[in-house]
Known about the structure:
The protein has 471 residues and is of the alpha+beta class. It has helices at 34-41, 47-50, 53-57, 60-73, 87-93, 96-104, 133-151, 167-179, 193-196, 199-209, 213-223, 247-264, 283-299, 338-351, 360-377, 384-405, 409-418, 423-430, 436-442, 449-455, 460-467, and strands at residues 112-118, 125-130, 184-189, 227-229, 232-234, 268-272, 275-280, 311-314, 319-320, 323-328, 331-336.
Amino acid sequence: MNATKDGFKDRQLHIEDYRMGIPAEQGKQAGVSAYRRIAETDSTITDLWANSLLELILRGDNLNKAYLQVKRNKGKGGIDGMQVDELLPFLRENQSTIIEQVRNGSYKPNPVRRVEIPKEEKGKTRGLGIPTVVDRVIQQAIAQELIPLYEVRFSDSSFGFRPKRGCHDALRQVQKYVNEGYVYAVGMDLEKFFDTVNHSKLIEVLSRTIKDGRVISLIHKYLNAGVMKDGVFEKTEYGVPQGGPLSPLLANVMLNELDKELERRGHRFVRYADDCMILCRSRKSAERTLENIVPYIEGRLFLKVNRTKTTVSHISKIKYLGYAFYRRQKKCRFRVHPKSIKKMKDNLRILLGRNNGMGNKVREQKQKQFATGWVNYYAMADMKNLMQETDEWMRRKIRAVYWKQWKKVRTRYKMLQGLHLPDWQVHKLANSRKGIWNTAQVLSTALTKQIIVRLGYVSMSDYYQKVCENY
C-alpha cells in the first residue's frame, strides 16, 4: 500500500537516523531528556530551555525512543492506512523534510480515525481517535519531553497515566483515607470528559508552563486536526481524542487544575484519569463538598458533571476502578464489585463457548491470558471463595466443550478409555442421553482439575493464592 497518496505525504514526520545514540559528551543514558535532568535539580526552567523545547523534542535520540515505543505498542493504522510495520522504511526514505516542517511550523497533522468501542452500559459506546502511525511518533516525542516537565507539578493524589503509578496505588490511597475515618465518598463523574475538554482553557493551562510557542502551536494543531468517521470529516472544536500518546498527558494537565483546587480546599481525594473520588468524614460534609466543587468544575474548567452518576455514598456502596470496599475490624479491605464479577463471567462465557469457533490451543491460550491478567488486577481483593466457585463453573464449561467435540459414541468410548475410567463408567458415560451441560457435571470424574490444568488452562484459584497478599 502506498500510504503517502492523496496529499498525505507532506504531512508525515521525517526522522533522521533512527538508531542514533546520544553523543558521549552528554554523559547520560539514552532516552533521558535534558528537561528531566533540569527538573530534578531546579524547579524553575530557564528561559533558554523553555524557548528551545521544540529542539529538545526533535533531538535524534528522543525521536528514536518515540519510534521504538510506537513500534512496541503496535496498534492499527490511521486514515492513511500505514501500519506500524511500514513505518521504519517510510521514515528512512523521508528523513529531513518533515522535521523541518515541524520546526518551521508548516507541518499539518492528519485527522484521527474514529473507532467506537462498547462501554459497560448497554448500547453505549466510547469513541477512540486513532492517529496515523507517523503522528503517533510525533505525539510520543512531545509527550516524552513534557512528562518530566509536568511530573514535578502533578498532585500526589493523581495516579492515572503516570510513570510508576497505577490503579493499585490509587486504591491503597483510598484505603489509607478510609482507615483514617474518611468513610463517605463523593464519586465524581465527568460527563464525556475526553470529548468535552475546552481547547482554549487547555491551551491557557499549557502556556503557563510551556514557553516555546512553536510547541503550543503544534499541540493546538493536533487538537484541531479533526476526525474521519465513515469517510466523513468532522471538525473537533472540543475534546482530546483518546487513542494518541499525547492525550493522557493533556488530560492530566487539564485535571491537575482540579487537583490543585481540591488540595487548596484541604480535601482528601484520589484521581485516576477522569475518575475522581473525594473522601469525607460525614455524609453532610460530602454533600457540602459536592455542592461547592461543581461550580468550579463547570464554571472555571468548562467541564460538565454528570449529576445522575455523581453520588454521595458510604464507602461500602462505592465502586472504584472495578473494586468495592468493606470494613472489617475497623480496617478497610477490598472486594471485587458485583459488576466486575458479571463482566468477568461474560468474558469467560465468550472464551469458553462451545460455538465460538476457536481451536483448543487458541482457547487454552486466551483463557490463560485472561485469567492471569484478571487475577493480577484484582489481587488486592478478598476473593478466595469467588475464585473457587468460578473455577468450578469454568471447568464445567471446559468439559462441555470437549464433550461436544466427542460427538460420536465411538469417539467418547475412545477418549474415556484413555482417561483410565472403569469399563462400566465408560459405557455409562458414552451412552448417556443427558444434555451437554448436565453431562459436563458428571464428567468431572474423568476430566479432573489436574487434567484440565495439564491441558493448558489456568486455575484462577491456584493462581490467586500465588499473587494475593491477603489469601
